[in-house]
TrEMBL record:
This is VanW family protein. It comes from the Bacteria. It comes from Chryseobacterium formosus. Pfam families: VanW.
Length: 235
């Protein structure tokens, strides 16, 4: 009966409930979220990661959505101990905020939603944060793996799905100096840089895969030490 009742509740009400939960959790938390932007660079060192943007359904819409996200996080400064929140920075991915429809993966299904495709941006941020040894406060893997090996633009396990109100990506700057995002989106490439006043010693991130009947277990290693495990359903 509880499951049936939950299905009858409109999505808009569920979202408002989730946002209220987030709000009250934030009030109890001691985390300080980054809000400062500056076109002045915080330093001369760069830690960079690039990914191919592969063509597919809604490709032009995906590029459009990625550029909106890029504009919203470009030049964001994260001071020591401050936390970057994807949704607090980007905002709701709807038509009002100029997002377009694109492909999304929600509840083990492929669907079309406003803001589709922006998970590639949250994923590249997550992957760069791992390499830079920042603290991952919140991250959610995708539930399914839809790509063949020759179609991948990033290793399986380096992804981070984001769903407004439900799933966020939050990263804390544990370095003793500020870091700053710099973003570039082209028609075939996504580039993210961390600018810093001191050199960031990048960490070795590797993934170990164990295939089972209905999917694959992915174990993430940081400098050869096991960090976490995620399971992905194979379509």
């Amino acid at each position: 009966m509880k499951k049936i009742a939950r299905r009858l509740i409109p999505y808009s009400l569920k979202l408002q409930y989730r946002l209220l939960q987030r709000y009250f959790d934030d009030q109890k938390s001691s985390l300080i979220y980054s809000k400062t932007f500056s076109e002045n660079s915080v330093g001369e060192f760069e830690t960079e990661i690039k990914q191919v943007i592969r063509k597919g359904d809604f490709h032009e819409n995906k590029i459009h959505n990625l550029k909106i996200v890029a504009d919203k996080i470009n030049h964001l400064i994260i001071q020591p101990d401050e936390v970057f929140s994807f949704w607090k920075t980007v905002g709701k991915p709807d038509a009002k905020n100029n997002f377009k429809q694109g492909r999304n993966l929600i509840k083990n299904k492929i669907s079309n939603e406003f803001g589709g495709g922006i998970c590639q941006f949250s994923s590249i941020i997550y992957f760069l944060a791992l390499q830079s040894d920042l603290k991952i406060i919140e991250r959610h893997p995708h539930s399914i793996d839809i790509y063949k090996e020759d179609e991948r633009f990033t290793p399986l396990g380096s992804d981070s799905t984001v769903v407004f109100g439900y799933k966020d990506l939050q990263i804390q700057n544990t370095l003793p100096f500020p870091i700053q995002f710099e973003t570039i989106v082209k028609d075939n490439e996504l580039c993210l840089k961390l600018i810093s006043p001191q050199k960031i010693n990048t960490q070795k991130i590797t993934f170990n895969y164990t295939k089972v009947e209905n999917g694959v277990w992915v174990e993430t290693f940081l400098n050869d030490e096991s960090l976490l495990k995620n399971f992905y359903i194979r379509l």
